[in-house]
Amino acid sequence: MKVLTLIVSFNGARWLHKCLTALMQQDGEVSVMVIDNHSTDQSQQILSEFAGKIRLIHLPENIGFGQACNIGLRAALAENFDYAFLLNQDATVEANTISTLVNIATRYQVDVLSPLHYNGQGTALDPLFSSCLDARATPAILQDLARGEVSEVYPTRFVNAAAWLVSRHALQTVGGFDPMFFHYGEDNDYLYRAAFHGLLVAVTPLAKIFHDRPTPPSFLRLPPSRMANAELVQLKNPNRSFPHALLISAARTGYRALREAANLRLRNSIHAIRIFLRVTVRSRAILQNRKLIRTPGPSFLIHAPNRD
Question: Rounded to whole angstroms, how far apart are CA atoms 85 and 7?
């Protein structure tokens, strides 16, 4: 099985050497492509140390995680790779991580497969990843982990894209990341699309990564762009009609605004409404992209993207 490992880097000098060194120690042959989003720190110097071992693409500007990742996904399709392995620049792998993922994904026909995500020290599960393992998202896995009796595969509704093994079938059916998302939210959107097309998304406890990142703030403390992306994800969800998704988003926004106003946090209340309006003015582009993603095919990898 041919696997293309893809890393989108942006000012990741703190992590890149450790990340790439671990990949060089993988079982079997390793193909690694790094797409650098115009880093301005010491990333270029570190990446140059791996010349001849990785394929490196320097972008003249930061085009965001999803669009940069799509460059590698197009290469995976064009060069007939069986899988693409997406790995964050701030994550490291064990020697058998990729080979284990490939073995399990092939045997169980999983289209998007994630290992367990530990924190950077390996002392506990990554806090945000843990939230992906609750009973609604990934039934039974926490109970099985506690008992020490785990299955190889657990279907899940969502797992963040810090480490995804994505099948060629997924790229041909779902495509790449929607460029409407500059950064954050593109993985939620992708998995909603995968579910719409009946693809299997799963977590395996037999492989792990170590994700060195801080816990992000609560929703209303997020930057406006991330709050807007959270609403955009819901409006783009092809498993709901657009009017239904719009109604849910409006109701959620109204609840947040009233709650904040009742607690005399008027600035937060106004902020929530502004975020909703910021997203809904893009309704025309959202509807166009919803139509595109409902048709099986390599969306956003071959078709012209709509970013507006």
Answer: 9
Q: Domains of the chain by range and CATH?
A: 3-211 (3.90.550.10), 219-293 (no CATH)
Q: Mind listing the pLDDT tens digit of every residue in the chain (308 residues)?
A: 999 999 999 999 999 999 999 999 998 888 999 999 999 999 999 999 999 999 999 999 999 999 999 999 999 999 999 999 999 999 999 999 999 999 999 999 999 999 999 999 999 999 889 888 888 889 889 888 888 889 999 999 999 999 999 999 999 999 999 999 988 899 999 999 999 999 999 999 999 999 998 765 554 455 667 788 889 999 999 999 999 999 999 998 998 899 989 988 888 889 889 888 989 999 999 999 999 999 999 999 985 445 55
pTM over 0.85: yes
Q: Where are the beta strands (DSSP E) in the chain?
A: 3-9, 31-36, 55-58, 83-87, 91-93, 112-119, 154-155, 163-167, 201-211
